[in-house]
Amino acid sequence: MRGGISVEAVEKKLYQYSGYKKRIEEQEKQIVELMDKKDVLAERMLRGRNLDIVRVMGGFASDPVFIAVQKMVDVYGAMIDAIRHELVDLYFKADEIIRLVNAAGLTDMERQYIQYRYFDGLRASQTAAKLDYSEGHARKIKNSSLLKICAVLER
To answer: Where does this protein have coiled-coil stretches (predicted)?
Structure first.
């Protein structure tokens, strides 16, 4: 632990990146699915009114199916808006981690270590093999990069 920011806390933050990216991917996929459903409903709504129109006071026609479909379109719109708000938050959190790593002044090797270990989710042994280093040397790269990131957080 250095001056209040522990290496473990930095690691925890870095590990969150892949979770954020996975959630972003899931949410973007869900938005596409909801938009498709919303479009189908909207198209149905625009095809024309049902022949079984109910007259209401004032002479305006009211189609219960049209109204139900319109409400469903509104529900899908609200769901999409909620997911978009969550996406903005997730993108901000992921970008914050990237900015933190970029501000740390890491060497190319340290960046690669961070990418493989924390962003891609490889185990320590896999990361060392990917870097073509021993696990002991890879651990030194890890410690060096985490200390540099700690220094950024302490500023």
So the answer is: 17-44
The angle at the Cα of 111, spanning 92 to 89, to the nearest 5 degrees, equals 10
Please, what sign has the CA dihedral across residues 16, 22, 28, 30? negative
Assess contact for 91 and 28: CB atoms under 8 A.
no
Q: Name residues whose C-beta falls within 8 Å of residue 90's C-beta, 6 or more positions apart in sequence.
A: 20, 23, 24, 27
41 neighbors 76 (Cβ within 8 angstroms): yes
Integer Cα distance of 66 and 122 in angstroms: 52
Could you list the beta-strand ranges (E) of 2-90: 54-55, 61-62
> Can you give the pTM of this predicted structure?
0.75
Helical H runs in 104-123?
108-114
Q: Which residue has the higher pLDDT, 46 or 48?
A: 46
Cα atoms in the 13 Å half-sphere on the side-chain side of 154: 14
Please give the average per-residue pLDDT across 98-116, as a whole number.
96
Angle at 79 between CA 35 and CA 27, to 5 degrees: 70
β-strand partners of 54: 62
Strand, helix or coil for residue 120: coil
Q: Which two tokens stand for residue 62?
A: 């009211």
Spell 109-122 as b/e; 16+ CB within 10 A means b.
ebebbbebbbbeeb
